[in-house]
């Protein structure tokens, strides 16, 4: 038995404990996440290197049937790829090059890799960004309308259409769009991207419409369905019922009370979809002859251009990791419970 | 309607609310959720609306705001507020009226406030939308409101989120929010369920004080008559969608005339004396499945043939006291002391089976239980009592081997038990069984009742095959579950039935000690009564010892022989139940006793 404790006055409930200052805690947290991101990227670099260089002889892969008939070419390639060095030293010289912004020289045309891909990286990022800017409000809007009419006709129609869109591969959607707006029915937009040397694909805005639309149609259904499902859960919650009984108008209930709590799962799906876009736009870029990363990756693989494939893979991985990191940070910022857990 | 004439003259003008012949039906099929509801709330009056789960009390509560949950529809009747019928107003006016004239305080403190909006902003949200006052005056209003309910009102508090408040604080914020637009009528939907007695008392007092101060009429919805015993001016008892008894508080508690009201009162434990608690057999019939005649006839001990044939109407017995029963003149008077039994004998010889010595428990680096020592004898019930956070559940988890970060000794029949259940022998695990608080979470939803109860028998090699099935049926009969439920999944069972399954599962292991962790706190009082009488029977017949964790002291008096009062992880008072409750030595215990709602 211990010393008698008197009943603490419940009116004096103590404030939640405050630990280190919020800013310091946040910095620590962010540094840790960045460290993890760098670690992930490093692991990816090992995998990419192992897959492209260490397993089998890249020179043999590149030359194919010429390998035996053309010893001079073999020696030249081996010199260029340092393939007589040990694997470890090859890896570190490649990694060093990556870190200093020199990922090597293309085998296909003997130009520096970075000079060739920097343009297409920007092109793909622009395409992704445009798709995201159109897709995010659209997906949330559709989800809100759908949730508002839950299980009534407008909701059923929307969900059926979304499911159909999600089921159709994006190149089919793309071909349909081309047929509809470019070749067969209307002639509004160009069927392929107009890529003038030295210019950007978006110099002709009309040419961007169909690629962006195809991507938006491919990605929106997933995001929209997840957000709708979360919204339905949230709309059934006690605090939403309280908001309604408090006399809050339904649009405000939807926007402020419901959407705010449904946004986080949405962000996670958006991040996954955007990250997928970074590597998965191959088909769309090929279809519309869009000069982006995906198309370049396909070309490089076809040409056995090992340094190009390695660099492009690393860039796609980096985009993937960065997008997910941003999504995690946003999710935490938008979830008060998680946010306060970090700063206290 | 007999009711409208019988009630005291309604508030024709100037505050108050009149409900006339309200009916709510299901949208899918023609079944009444509630019907024939007549109720008057006078200005400044608190009316308690009491009934078991499924009686339709919450439906009536939200109907006052012209709101029904998905799947139900307000189909008839009037809700008159200052001469206007809320149910006939255009929806825009109804919305305008909500919050400003009729406010609502929700049930569950854990989910009542929006987790993503700061407290201060939620408080003033309605005023902001309606453009009432200026930003500064609204903020000041929020501060004053928080001060009124006894909460801090500085910027730091206004900037908090709901998860940074305790359950009691959330409910007081909800109260402050409801009062902020100065409503005329308040609907409270079990706002203290899940709070410990101290916090409950404070929320109730705050509410009653504010209602008096502002002349607000309140409808207080609850399943526990004891809660409204101190705050309600009048009480309406609901059963199966109808009001079965309505009257001034004193009349309801002193001279309850409906058998259902009496049964509810009989299921409430008293602080002053141990009672043989009784539940109400059966369950509240669902809308569409209610019996003809008197809806209570199949559960009523007074029922005669006439009760099955004739539909009773509300009759006025004396001023303001109405009853819906055919036999009020024949069933005699009710005595509050009828169920009293002798308290557990404090001098009974004890044969210790389980002892806890010098128990220190840690969560990580934080110590939450300090040097706790107590023991449990064969065939005895020891209660661990304390507010939320006092460590009572933590201690019981250590005894059950569910939390292993502890020091000290827990000995079973003189042998020390290993810290975690994994390291204990199968025999030790079998003999100490744990029953969890929430029966909605403790049963695997994919298994049938039979599979759930069989599992321990198979696990411990007690029975198998046909023999096990027979044992399951036997156990189900013991916990008063019909054999028809053998192949049900838990989702088809009510809360009380689920808890019976959990008890049967524990019994299947043929334990010597059962740890009951707040096993009745998620259940209606009437169901609690029957669970307690079931446990009492098991203790007597099988000599099972029980560690009974609860925050309800009245319940302790009826079920336990000894009690350990816990505060902040320490035992502050212990002894036989009679001694501790009759002559408490510590202020803490006295406070707990004073804050417990009571009807005796």
TrEMBL record, chain A:
Residues 121-327 form the ABC transmembrane type-1 domain. The chain crosses the membrane at residues 34-55, 125-149, 161-188, 208-227, 258-291, 311-334. It is found in: Cell membrane. It holds the Pfam family BPD_transp_1. It comes from the Bacteria. The keyword Metal-binding does not apply. Keywords: Cell membrane, Membrane, Transmembrane, Transmembrane helix, Transport. It is a multi-pass membrane protein. Its main location: membrane. InterPro entries: BPD_transp_1_N, MetI-like, MetI-like_sf. PANTHER family: DIPEPTIDE TRANSPORT SYSTEM PERMEASE PROTEIN DPPB-RELATED, PEPTIDE ABC TRANSPORTER PERMEASE PROTEIN. Belongs to the binding-protein-dependent transport system permease family. This is ABC transporter permease. The lineage of its organism: Bacteria, Bacillati, Actinomycetota, Actinomycetes, Propionibacteriales.
From TrEMBL, chain B:
It comes from the Bacteria. InterPro entries: AAA+_ATPase, ABC_Ni/Peptide_Import, ABC_transporter-like_ATP-bd, ABC_transporter-like_CS, Oligopep_ABC_C, P-loop_NTPase. It comes from Nocardioides mangrovi. It is a peripheral membrane protein. SMART domains: AAA. It catalyses: Ni(2+)(out) + ATP + H2O = Ni(2+)(in) + ADP + phosphate + H(+). This is Nickel import system ATP-binding protein NikD. Belongs to the ABC transporter superfamily. Its EC number is 7.2.2.11.
């Amino acid at each position: 038995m211990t010393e008698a404790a008197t009943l603490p006055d419940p009116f004096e409930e103590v404030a939640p404990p405050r630990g280190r200052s919020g800013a310091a805690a946040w910095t620590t947290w962010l540094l840790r996440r960045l460290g993890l991101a760098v670690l992930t990227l490093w692991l990816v670099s090992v995998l990419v290197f192992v897959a492209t260089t260490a397993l089998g002889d890249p020179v043999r892969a590149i030359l194919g049937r010429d390998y035996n008939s053309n010893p001079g070419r073999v020696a030249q390639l081996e010199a260029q790829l340092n393939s007589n060095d040990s694997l470890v030293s090859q890896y570190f010289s490649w990694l060093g090059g990556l870190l200093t912004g020199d990922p090597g020289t293309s085998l296909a045309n003997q130009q520096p890799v970075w000079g060739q891909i920097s343009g297409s990286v920007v092109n793909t990022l622009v395409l992704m960004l445009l798709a995201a800017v159109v897709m995010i409000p659209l997906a949330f809007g559709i989800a809100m309308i759908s949730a508002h009419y839950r299980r009534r006709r407008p909701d059923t129609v929307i969900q059926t259409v979304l499911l159909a869109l999600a089921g159709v591969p994006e190149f089919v959607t793309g071909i349909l769009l081309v047929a509809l707006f470019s070749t067969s029915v209307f002639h509004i937009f160009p069927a392929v991207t107009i890529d003038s040397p030295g210019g950007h694909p978006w110099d002709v805005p009309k040419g961007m419409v169909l690629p962006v639309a195809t991507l938006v149609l491919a990605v929106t259904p997933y995001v929209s369905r997840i957000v709708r499902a979360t919204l339905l859960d949230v709309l059934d919650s006690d605090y939403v019922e309280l908001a309604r009984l408090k006399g809050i108008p339904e649009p405000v209930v939807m926007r402020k009370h419901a959407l705010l709590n449904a946004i986080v799962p949405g962000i996670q799906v958006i991040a996954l979809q955007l990250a997928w876009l970074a590597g998965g736009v191959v088909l769309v870029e090929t279809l519309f002859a869009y000069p982006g990363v995906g198309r370049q990756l396909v070309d490089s693989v076809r040409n056995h251009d090992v340094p190009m494939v390695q660099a492009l893979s690393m860039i796609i991985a980096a985009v993937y990791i960065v997008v997910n990191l941003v999504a995690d940070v946003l999710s935490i910022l938008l979830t008060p419970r998680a946010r306060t857990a970090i700063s206290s | 309607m007999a009711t409208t004439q019988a009630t005291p003259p309604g508030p024709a003008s100037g505050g108050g609310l009149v409900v006339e012949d309200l009916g709510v039906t299901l949208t899918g099929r023609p079944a009444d959720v509630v019907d024939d509801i007549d109720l008057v709330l006078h200005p400044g009056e608190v009316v308690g609306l009491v009934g078991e789960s499924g009686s339709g009390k919450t439906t009536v509560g939200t109907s006052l705001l012209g709101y029904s949950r998905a799947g139900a529809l307000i189909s008839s009747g009037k809700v008159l507020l200052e001469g206007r019928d809320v149910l006939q107003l255009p929806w825009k006016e109804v919305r305008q009226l909500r919050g400003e004239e009729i406010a609502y305080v929700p049930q569950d403190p854990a989910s009542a406030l929006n987790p993503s909006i700061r407290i201060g902003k939620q408080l003033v949200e309605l005023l902001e939308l309606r453009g009432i006052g200026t930003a500064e005056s609204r903020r000041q209003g929020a501060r004053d409101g928080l001060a009124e309910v006894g909460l801090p009102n500085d910027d730091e508090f206004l900037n908090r989120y709901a998860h940074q408040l305790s359950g009691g604080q959330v409910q007081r914020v909800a109260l402050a929010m409801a009062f902020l637009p100065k409503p005329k009528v308040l609907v409270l939907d079990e706002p203290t369920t899940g709070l410990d007695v101290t916090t409950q008392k404070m929320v109730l007092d705050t509410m009653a004080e504010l209602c008096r101060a502002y002349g607000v009429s309140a409808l207080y919805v609850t399943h526990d008559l004891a809660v409204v015993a101190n705050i309600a001016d009048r009480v309406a008892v609901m059963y199966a969608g109808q009001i079965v008894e309505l009257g001034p508080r004193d009349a309801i508690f002193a001279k309850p005339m409906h058998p259902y009201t009496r049964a509810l009162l009989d299921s409430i434990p008293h602080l002053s004396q141990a009672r043989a608690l009784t539940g109400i057999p059966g369950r509240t019939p669902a809308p569409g499945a209610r019996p003809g005649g008197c809806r209570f006839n199949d559960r009523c001990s007074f029922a005669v043939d006439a009760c099955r044939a004739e539909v009773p109407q509300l009759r006025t017995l004396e001023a303001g006291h109405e009853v819906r029963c055919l036999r009020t003149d024949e069933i005699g008077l009710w005595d509050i002391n009828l169920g009293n039994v002798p308290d557990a004998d404090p001098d009974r010889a004890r044969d210790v089976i389980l002892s806890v010595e010098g128990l220190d428990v840690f969560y990580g680096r934080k110590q939450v239980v300090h040097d706790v020592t107590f023991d449990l004898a064969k065939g005895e019930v020891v209660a661990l009592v304390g507010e939320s956070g006092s460590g009572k559940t933590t201690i019981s988890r250590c005894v059950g081997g569910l939390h292993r970060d502890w020091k000290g000794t827990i000995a079973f029949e003189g042998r020390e038990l290993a810290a975690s259940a994994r390291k204990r022998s199968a025999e030790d695990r079998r003999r100490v069984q744990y029953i969890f608080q929430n029966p909605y979470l403790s049963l695997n939803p994919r298994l049938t009742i039979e599979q759930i109860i069989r599992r321990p028998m198979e696990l411990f090699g007690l029975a198998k095959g046909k023999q096990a099935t027979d044992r399951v049926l036997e156990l189900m009969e013991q916990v008063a579950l019909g054999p028809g439920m053998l192949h049900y999944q838990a989702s088809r069972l009510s809360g009380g039935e689920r808890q019976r399954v959990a008890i049967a599962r524990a019994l299947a292991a043929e334990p010597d000690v059962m740890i009951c962790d707040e096993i009745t706190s998620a259940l209606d009082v009437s169901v609690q009564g029957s669970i307690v009488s079931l446990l009492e029977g098991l203790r007597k017949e099988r000599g099972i010892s029980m560690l009974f964790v609860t925050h309800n002291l009245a319940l302790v008096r009826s079920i336990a022989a000894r009690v350990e009062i816990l505060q902040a992880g320490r035992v502050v008072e212990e002894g036989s139940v009679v001694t501790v409750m009759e002559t408490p030595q510590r202020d803490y215990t006295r406070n707990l006793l004073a804050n417990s709602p009571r009807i005796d």
